[in-house]
Protein backbone atom coordinates (compact mmCIF):
# COMPACT_ATOMS: atom_id res chain seq x y z
CA UNK A 1 0.00 0.00 0.00
CA UNK A 2 1.20 3.49 -0.86
CA UNK A 3 0.68 5.48 2.33
CA UNK A 4 0.63 8.78 0.46
CA UNK A 5 3.25 10.52 2.60
CA UNK A 6 6.34 10.42 0.36
CA UNK A 7 8.10 13.79 0.35
CA UNK A 8 6.65 14.93 3.66
CA UNK A 9 8.77 15.88 6.66
CA UNK A 10 8.70 14.08 10.00
CA UNK A 11 10.24 14.91 13.35
CA UNK A 12 10.96 11.74 15.34
CA UNK A 13 12.16 11.94 18.95
CA UNK A 14 14.31 9.34 20.74
CA UNK A 15 15.08 7.90 17.31
CA UNK A 16 18.59 6.50 17.76
CA UNK A 17 17.34 3.10 18.96
CA UNK A 18 14.32 1.09 20.03
CA UNK A 19 10.79 2.05 19.09
CA UNK A 20 11.72 5.54 17.94
CA UNK A 21 14.24 4.13 15.51
CA UNK A 22 11.67 1.63 14.28
CA UNK A 23 9.30 4.51 13.51
CA UNK A 24 12.02 6.46 11.70
CA UNK A 25 12.93 3.41 9.61
CA UNK A 26 9.33 2.80 8.58
CA UNK A 27 8.81 6.43 7.61
CA UNK A 28 12.07 6.44 5.65
CA UNK A 29 10.84 3.40 3.75
CA UNK A 30 7.76 5.42 2.77
CA UNK A 31 9.89 8.25 1.39
CA UNK A 32 9.45 10.66 4.30
CA UNK A 33 12.22 13.17 5.00
CA UNK A 34 13.37 13.06 8.60
CA UNK A 35 14.70 15.15 11.43
CA UNK A 36 15.69 12.77 14.20
CA UNK A 37 16.65 13.52 17.77
CA UNK A 38 18.22 11.65 20.69
CA UNK A 39 20.43 12.59 23.59
CA UNK A 40 23.66 10.88 22.45
CA UNK A 41 25.27 12.22 19.29
CA UNK A 42 27.26 9.17 18.15
CA UNK A 43 24.43 6.60 18.03
CA UNK A 44 22.11 9.24 16.56
CA UNK A 45 24.55 9.97 13.73
CA UNK A 46 24.93 6.22 13.11
CA UNK A 47 21.16 5.88 12.81
CA UNK A 48 21.03 8.85 10.44
CA UNK A 49 23.58 7.13 8.20
CA UNK A 50 21.52 3.93 8.22
CA UNK A 51 18.39 5.81 7.27
CA UNK A 52 20.11 7.62 4.40
CA UNK A 53 21.47 4.34 3.13
CA UNK A 54 18.04 2.70 3.34
CA UNK A 55 16.50 5.33 1.06
CA UNK A 56 18.88 7.64 -0.85
CA UNK A 57 15.90 9.68 -2.05
CA UNK A 58 15.18 11.22 1.34
CA UNK A 59 16.88 13.86 3.44
CA UNK A 60 17.83 12.99 7.02
CA UNK A 61 18.97 15.54 9.60
CA UNK A 62 20.19 14.61 13.08
CA UNK A 63 20.02 16.99 16.05
CA UNK A 64 21.42 15.60 19.29
CA UNK A 65 20.44 16.78 22.76
CA UNK A 66 17.80 16.55 25.46
CA UNK A 67 14.46 17.31 23.81
CA UNK A 68 13.22 18.39 27.23
CA UNK A 69 15.24 21.62 27.00
CA UNK A 70 13.98 24.70 25.18
CA UNK A 71 17.23 25.13 23.25
CA UNK A 72 17.19 21.61 21.81
CA UNK A 73 13.49 21.81 20.93
CA UNK A 74 14.14 25.03 19.03
CA UNK A 75 17.13 23.50 17.26
CA UNK A 76 15.13 20.44 16.23
CA UNK A 77 12.19 22.52 15.00
CA UNK A 78 14.51 24.87 13.11
CA UNK A 79 16.14 21.92 11.35
CA UNK A 80 12.79 20.76 9.96
CA UNK A 81 11.59 22.81 6.98
CA UNK A 82 7.99 21.77 7.64
CA UNK A 83 6.69 19.42 10.32
CA UNK A 84 3.98 17.30 8.69
CA UNK A 85 4.47 14.38 11.09
CA UNK A 86 5.49 14.52 14.75
CA UNK A 87 6.43 11.39 16.66
CA UNK A 88 6.76 12.21 20.35
CA UNK A 89 8.88 9.74 22.28
CA UNK A 90 11.01 9.93 25.39
CA UNK A 91 12.58 7.54 27.85
CA UNK A 92 10.39 6.58 30.78
CA UNK A 93 11.22 7.44 34.39
CA UNK A 94 12.76 4.76 36.59
CA UNK A 95 10.68 2.19 38.48
CA UNK A 96 10.39 2.29 42.23
CA UNK A 97 8.18 2.85 45.27
CA UNK A 98 6.24 6.12 45.44
CA UNK A 99 7.27 6.46 49.09
CA UNK A 100 10.83 7.08 47.91
CA UNK A 101 10.06 9.68 45.23
CA UNK A 102 10.62 13.35 45.86
CA UNK A 103 8.79 16.32 44.41
CA UNK A 104 11.73 16.72 42.05
CA UNK A 105 11.29 13.13 40.80
CA UNK A 106 7.65 13.84 39.97
CA UNK A 107 8.48 17.11 38.27
CA UNK A 108 11.14 15.44 36.11
CA UNK A 109 8.71 12.69 35.06
CA UNK A 110 5.93 15.12 34.20
CA UNK A 111 8.32 17.40 32.33
CA UNK A 112 9.77 14.57 30.22
CA UNK A 113 6.64 12.55 29.52
CA UNK A 114 3.88 15.16 29.52
CA UNK A 115 5.04 18.75 29.16
CA UNK A 116 7.77 18.16 26.55
CA UNK A 117 5.47 16.44 24.04
CA UNK A 118 2.82 19.11 24.65
CA UNK A 119 5.37 21.83 23.89
CA UNK A 120 6.24 20.16 20.57
CA UNK A 121 2.57 19.73 19.73
CA UNK A 122 1.92 23.40 20.52
CA UNK A 123 4.77 24.43 18.22
CA UNK A 124 3.50 22.44 15.22
CA UNK A 125 -0.23 21.66 15.06
CA UNK A 126 -1.55 25.07 14.02
CA UNK A 127 0.78 25.13 11.02
CA UNK A 128 -0.26 21.57 10.20
CA UNK A 129 -3.89 22.70 10.24
CA UNK A 130 -3.11 25.67 7.98
CA UNK A 131 -1.43 23.26 5.55
CA UNK A 132 -4.36 20.82 5.64
CA UNK A 133 -2.33 17.83 6.81
CA UNK A 134 -0.79 16.75 10.09
CA UNK A 135 -0.12 13.57 12.03
CA UNK A 136 0.96 13.47 15.68
CA UNK A 137 1.85 10.15 17.29
CA UNK A 138 2.65 10.03 21.00
CA UNK A 139 4.47 6.89 22.09
CA UNK A 140 3.30 6.36 25.65
CA UNK A 141 2.99 2.97 27.38
CA UNK A 142 0.69 0.03 27.89
CA UNK A 143 0.83 1.04 31.55
CA UNK A 144 -1.57 3.89 30.71
CA UNK A 145 -4.22 1.22 30.05
CA UNK A 146 -3.13 -1.25 32.71
CA UNK A 147 -0.99 0.53 35.34
CA UNK A 148 2.08 -1.23 36.75
CA UNK A 149 2.63 -0.55 40.43
CA UNK A 150 6.39 0.02 40.26
CA UNK A 151 6.02 2.42 37.32
CA UNK A 152 4.02 5.04 39.19
CA UNK A 153 6.00 7.96 37.80
CA UNK A 154 5.30 6.78 34.27
CA UNK A 155 1.68 5.90 35.04
CA UNK A 156 1.02 9.39 36.32
CA UNK A 157 2.91 11.49 33.78
CA UNK A 158 1.80 9.55 30.71
CA UNK A 159 -1.81 9.44 31.90
CA UNK A 160 -1.69 13.22 32.18
CA UNK A 161 -0.61 13.44 28.54
CA UNK A 162 -3.34 10.99 27.56
CA UNK A 163 -6.05 13.10 29.18
CA UNK A 164 -4.76 16.25 27.52
CA UNK A 165 -4.69 14.61 24.08
CA UNK A 166 -8.26 13.36 24.48
CA UNK A 167 -9.47 16.95 24.45
CA UNK A 168 -6.98 18.46 22.02
CA UNK A 169 -7.42 15.85 19.28
CA UNK A 170 -11.14 16.64 19.09
CA UNK A 171 -10.79 20.35 18.48
CA UNK A 172 -12.56 21.06 15.16
CA UNK A 173 -9.84 23.46 14.07
CA UNK A 174 -7.43 20.50 14.12
CA UNK A 175 -9.52 17.42 13.31
CA UNK A 176 -11.50 19.42 10.75
CA UNK A 177 -8.29 20.34 8.94
CA UNK A 178 -6.90 16.81 8.59
CA UNK A 179 -4.70 16.94 11.70
CA UNK A 180 -4.90 13.73 13.72
CA UNK A 181 -3.39 13.06 17.15
CA UNK A 182 -3.17 9.50 18.45
CA UNK A 183 -1.32 7.64 21.17
CA UNK A 184 0.51 4.35 20.66
CA UNK A 185 0.73 2.25 23.83
CA UNK A 186 3.48 -0.37 23.56
CA UNK A 187 3.51 -3.49 25.69
CA UNK A 188 6.64 -5.66 25.87
CA UNK A 189 8.92 -4.95 22.92
CA UNK A 190 12.38 -6.39 22.47
CA UNK A 191 14.34 -3.21 23.10
CA UNK A 192 17.35 -2.23 25.16
CA UNK A 193 15.05 -0.85 27.87
CA UNK A 194 13.22 -4.17 28.15
CA UNK A 195 16.49 -6.10 28.32
CA UNK A 196 17.76 -3.80 31.06
CA UNK A 197 14.56 -4.29 33.05
CA UNK A 198 14.85 -8.06 32.66
CA UNK A 199 18.39 -7.91 33.98
CA UNK A 200 17.27 -5.90 37.02
CA UNK A 201 14.45 -8.37 37.70
CA UNK A 202 16.82 -11.31 37.37
CA UNK A 203 19.20 -9.81 39.91
CA UNK A 204 16.42 -9.03 42.39
CA UNK A 205 14.92 -12.51 42.09
CA UNK A 206 18.27 -14.29 41.96
CA UNK A 207 17.39 -15.95 38.67
CA UNK A 208 18.94 -16.01 35.22
CA UNK A 209 17.93 -13.46 32.62
CA UNK A 210 16.84 -16.34 30.39
CA UNK A 211 14.45 -17.62 33.05
CA UNK A 212 12.94 -14.19 33.64
CA UNK A 213 12.64 -13.61 29.91
CA UNK A 214 10.81 -16.93 29.45
CA UNK A 215 8.41 -16.10 32.28
CA UNK A 216 7.58 -12.78 30.67
CA UNK A 217 7.08 -14.31 27.23
CA UNK A 218 4.77 -16.98 28.63
CA UNK A 219 2.56 -14.25 30.09
CA UNK A 220 1.95 -12.77 26.62
CA UNK A 221 -0.78 -14.46 24.53
CA UNK A 222 1.29 -13.91 21.37
CA UNK A 223 4.09 -15.88 23.10
CA UNK A 224 6.77 -13.42 22.06
CA UNK A 225 7.98 -9.87 22.47
CA UNK A 226 7.14 -7.33 19.82
CA UNK A 227 9.75 -5.94 17.45
CA UNK A 228 10.65 -2.32 16.83
CA UNK A 229 10.11 -2.90 13.12
CA UNK A 230 6.46 -3.93 13.46
CA UNK A 231 5.82 -1.09 15.88
CA UNK A 232 7.31 1.36 13.38
CA UNK A 233 5.21 -0.01 10.55
CA UNK A 234 2.04 0.52 12.57
CA UNK A 235 3.17 4.04 13.40
CA UNK A 236 3.75 4.76 9.71
CA UNK A 237 0.22 3.68 8.88
CA UNK A 238 -1.21 6.06 11.49
CA UNK A 239 0.79 8.79 9.74
CA UNK A 240 -0.65 7.88 6.35
CA UNK A 241 -3.11 9.73 4.17
CA UNK A 242 -5.51 6.81 4.67
CA UNK A 243 -5.60 7.24 8.47
CA UNK A 244 -7.19 10.69 8.43
CA UNK A 245 -10.42 9.54 10.10
CA UNK A 246 -8.73 8.17 13.22
CA UNK A 247 -7.93 10.68 15.92
CA UNK A 248 -7.90 10.91 19.71
CA UNK A 249 -7.33 7.17 20.08
CA UNK A 250 -5.17 5.10 22.44
CA UNK A 251 -3.97 2.09 20.49
CA UNK A 252 -2.55 -0.77 22.52
CA UNK A 253 0.14 -2.91 20.90
CA UNK A 254 0.87 -5.61 23.43
CA UNK A 255 0.43 -9.05 21.87
CA UNK A 256 -2.90 -9.47 23.65
CA UNK A 257 -1.58 -8.94 27.18
CA UNK A 258 -4.31 -6.57 28.29
CA UNK A 259 -7.19 -8.80 29.40
CA UNK A 260 -10.06 -6.31 29.33
CA UNK A 261 -12.91 -5.87 26.86
CA UNK A 262 -12.56 -2.08 26.70
UniProtKB/TrEMBL annotation:
InterPro entries: NAD(P)-bd_dom_sf, SDR, SDR_fam. Signal peptide: none annotated. SUPFAM superfamilies: NAD(P)-binding Rossmann-fold domains. Belongs to the short-chain dehydrogenases/reductases (SDR) family. This is 3-oxoacyl-[acyl-carrier protein] reductase. The lineage of its organism: Bacteria, Pseudomonadati, Pseudomonadota, Gammaproteobacteria, Oceanospirillales.
Amino acid sequence: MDLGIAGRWALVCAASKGLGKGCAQALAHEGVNLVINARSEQPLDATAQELRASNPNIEVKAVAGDIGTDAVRQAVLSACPRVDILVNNNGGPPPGDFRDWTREDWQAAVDANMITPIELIKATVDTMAANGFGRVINITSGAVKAPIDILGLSNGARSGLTGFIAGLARQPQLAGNNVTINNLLPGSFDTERLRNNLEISAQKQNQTIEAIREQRVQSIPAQRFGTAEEFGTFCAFLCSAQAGYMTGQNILLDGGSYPGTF
